[in-house]
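Input/output pair, single chain:
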Amino acid sequence: MDGYWLVKTNFTMMRCKEITNHMQKQILKAATILSLVVALTITFAAAPAAADSFDSISVDVPFEFSAGHSVFPAGKYTVRPAGVNTNGVIRIISEDGKASGMLLTDSAESIQSKNETVLIFHRYGDQYFLYQVWAVGDTIGLEIPKSSMERQAVRAIEANKGQSARGDKIASVIIAASSPSRSK
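Output:
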């Protein structure tokens, strides 16, 4: 009978250890998920601030350019947030309404607030890619992630030792835009 109690006691102790280990794992899992939720909340709270800081920006772009997976002809454009509660999404539409697109954006930060409203493009040879959008007075702007077309242009430049086939180097092109109407 003593052997029976010893086995039962050992089994009970092992079962308690299993339950304790399981509870510790569940607590660690909950703490990890909570930390992830807090980090994501902080990250996504900062990104929309730039898109919410203006109602619309008008700009005259003198060259054909790419934004995301769309190609836009030279012309006058309006850049605005895509709508209410569409954080990090902007809409680009031509003055005649024939060219338009929606883009997901990331936030870009600057130490000093911008003196004017601008769109910044990356230029690779004769190809232009929308890179950033800045509203006057802001320290947080919008940055368009590199598309597959832009990455391909970068690889072509790198293959030619930093120059395009025409001999041009990579450059940033800044286009001034009209001051936006502020929403905040």
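The helical segments are 2-46, 48-51, 148-159. The chain is about 35% helix and 30% strand.
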